[in-house]
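Hey, I'm writing a tutorial for new members on how sequence and structure tokens pair up, and I'd like a real worked example in the thread rather than a made-up one. If someone can provide the structure for the chain below, I'll link this post from the tutorial.
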Amino acid sequence: QLQVVESGGDLVQPGGSLRLSCAASGFSLDYYAFAWFRQAPGKEREGVSCITSSGDGKNYADSVKGRFTISKDNAKNMVYLQMNSLKPDDTAVYYCAAARTGGSVCYRTLDDYDYWGQGTQVTVSS
């Protein structure tokens, strides 16, 4: 059974850092692109970052560019989102999603992803 499970969400002060983890099971990451999405209260779910199956292609929303870094460890079946210089606007539930595709470019579009985790809460507040 294909499954992705997020962890690492927490309460953090503005300017702080967090690393989110996404553990995949039931499939090999060699053939899957991944993305992180987030959803704040009262807002639509938005794509934060994505990474291709090879790990060579990455894409970031303008709001997180330069602060967030996505990475993928195929051997460990793990995907990460390193978040630095966090702001209150980053407060949201963060979701990991997977799509079976070997493309050289990834997309931060909800409909492109088939497998979703339950989310992990990130709260940035003093």
